[in-house]
Every structure is written in structure tokens, then in C-alpha cells.
Amino acid sequence: MTPPVDYDFYANVFLGRELEPVRFPRLAARAGEFVEGLCRGKCGSVPEQDWDLLRFAVCAVVEVLLNEERMEQRVFSGENNIVSESVGGYSVSYGSRALDSQAAGYLERKKKEAAVRFLSAVPALQSLFCVRSFLCLHQMQ
């Protein structure tokens, strides 16, 4: 389980400025679940001295989740859904009211990148996030 993250940590240690205090607990809970899943349930094995790195990962994901919510609000509010408009013979085309797979994939990558930036520095989790390279023993001919 990820260590608890409160708004005070977000605002004064992480130096986050994107989110108001009333929305923080819900997004922090979702971000903590994301980080826990990314760590395959191993957050509980992280020593207490490294908890701030876990908290930083949660705060970074919180900001991506906030951006995700803002994008969804724009899409589902009906604003900016006009994709083309003609004047002669008046014609209007509206876009989809859903995030396309490209936008959803982008947000998923951003959440992972935001978290891994901090999680890869946690010694107890490095085996999950560090890429190993091995010497190739085969010769090209």
C-alpha cells in the first residue's frame, strides 16, 4: 500500500499548484491505486525512508489525472465539438463526444512516465523499473 499523501505534502513539498484542496483526496486515492498497480503491490515493502519518493509519484500522477478530467470535461460539455463549418448552404460537422484511443493512450503514458520518474529511484522497486542490458555473445557475420 502506498503511504498516505495529504494536500500539505502536495502543496509544500511536491510544490504542486494545479489542484485545489477539496479535489485532492479523491484524485490522490486514484493516483495511489495507479502507483500501487504499477508497483505490482510491492509498495508495502518499501522502507519508510523512501516513502517520499512514493508520495512524489502519487502527486505527479494526481496532476496527470487532473489534466485527464479537464480533457473529459471539455469533450463531454459540448464545447468545441464542431470540427468543420461551411457558410454557403450552411453545414456544421460535430466531432465525437469521447476521448479517442490516441488521447487515452497519451494520458496513460503520461501517468506511467510521471510515476516511473520517481519510482525508479526507489531501491526496493528498481527491479521493476530499470532496464537491464546483457552483452551479446553472438558475432555478426
Can you describe this structure?
It is a single chain. By secondary structure, the protein is mainly α. 50% of the residues lie in helices and 6% in strands. It contains 5 helices and 2 strands. The protein has helices at residues 7-12, 24-38, 51-76, 101-119, 126-129, and strands at 82-86, 91-94. The chain has a two-stranded antiparallel ribbon. Helix 2 (24-38) packs across helix 3 and helix 3 (51-76) packs antiparallel against helix 4 (101-119). The radius of gyration is 21 Å and the shape is flat. The termini are far apart.
Determine the structural class based on helices, strands and strand pairing.
mainly alpha
Largest sheet composition: 2 strands, antiparallel
Task: List low-pLDDT spans.
Answer: none
Mean pLDDT: 84
Helix content: 40-55%
Percent range for β-strand residues = 5-15%
Task: Report strand order across the widest sheet.
Answer: 1-2
Number of helical regions: 5
Question: What is the general shape?
Answer: flat
* Total strand segments: 2
Radius of gyration: 21 Å
What's the quaternary structure here? single chain
CA-to-CA gap between the ends?
A: 51 Å
Sequence of secondary-structure elements: HHHEEHH
